[in-house]
Amino acid sequence: MQQQSLSSFSELHKRKLETQIKNYVSKLNAPTEIKESMLYSLEAGGKRIRPMLLFASLAAFGEDTLKGMWTAAAIEMVHTYSLIHDDLPSMDNDDLRRGKPTNHKVFGEAFAILAGDALLTYSFQSIAETPDEFASADTKLSLIMELSKASGAEGMVGGQAADIKGEGKQLGIEDLEYIHVHKTGKLLECSVVSGAILANASQETIQTLSAFAYHLGLAFQIRDDILDLEGTEELIGKPVGSDESKNKSTYPSLLTMNGAKEALANHIRSAKEKLKETGLQTDLLEEITDLIANRDH
Ligand code: GRG
Q: What CATH topology corresponds to 6-294?
């Protein structure tokens, strides 16, 4: 079966997802301020990489991508909550996110915390509300289990905790990998694996797709570090590797810029090998992989 191009696939699915999210939050029987705070960050211009991975994963199995809408919205809600809390004064204390004032700058710290909490809890409700024609009770339970593990102490929260613990210390490559595999990678993996769960894939295929997502997650982060460093160097007008860019452990600071680029290429190659191993129709997943390797923001 010939699949459609990634740009038309993404455009269509992004539109459907954004409508789903807006309707979902708007219909909540809750104080207006909390709904506004949730929607502000949900609609602040995210790239929707995680939902697209889930839809592309379903497409690889030749499944109806609509099945994944409730889980895709759930994962985007968890991602959005993590960004709101990450920006708080007690964490990164950021004033801007995606070029706009951060949630706590607009709604205050208490509402930013509450909006994050509401998004996290709402995500599990969203999966549970997947119509029965698209997912059995067992499937929904597996999806909720997957998302809980990916977001909690064994996943994203664990990665964030390790990151905070490592602040100001010189980390080794293994520590750095632990942080990124958990902080960023687990939710990306959950997106790909959720598509496979909805498609009733075998354990073997799920494991191969998890391995794909592991390499994709690290590639995503290495690219992020490279972009950050290039941006910093441009801003401060200093050559790559200068002292100003060395106050944080990153892939370029541990491996040099060339080493980081090489590691990125290796992870992209391994990710694509894993996709081939599945024997599925993985064109869209492959295109997303290339986009992540080459992204400029
Ligand atoms: C507060 C529990 C808790 C966790 C925070 C994800 C995270 C953990 C923090 C975000 C910090 C950060 C910038 C991590 C680097 C990788 C990352 C997740 C980037 C943002 O993801 P994109 O590029 O974001 O998909 P958009 O804006 O497109 O949605």
A: Farnesyl Diphosphate Synthase (1.10.600)
